[in-house]
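Encode chain A's predicted structure.
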Amino acid sequence: MRHLITANVNGRERELSVKSNQTLLEVLRDDLRLKGTREGCSVGVCGSCTVLVDGKPVSSCLMLASNAEGKEVLTIEGLARDGNLDPVQQAFLDHQAFQCGFCTPGMIMAVKGLLNENPKPDEAEVRDYLSGNICRCGTYVEVMAAVEELTGKT
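Encoded structure for chain A:
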């Protein structure tokens, strides 16, 4: 059975036909072809599928698409505006806070969510907030440097 929902995805109102058991991740990747949101573990522990829903980080592999009804969903593709990278994206680039790049979109979205909630987090808060994002390449030092730049602590 399919349901018709309306959600704002990356600043654009979208009417979507979703299955009852379809995740937000599946809708983003398969229906909307937004491939920046990655599927890693499918159980909400790796952070690769992190998107912002109403400004807060969400594991899109765990959220049913139908729960996005009336919500604002922001993916990595929606961060850049008018050809300019979001400051979080730019800081990750400047600090080379990536290696293979698989976890990078989820990390960027988690940092964006953190800074939405707390523009001046201390190191412990950053580490705690990002504890749900796993980087198998170990770029955590560079990620922390990027966040420190964004919070003015460099």
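The mean pLDDT is 94.
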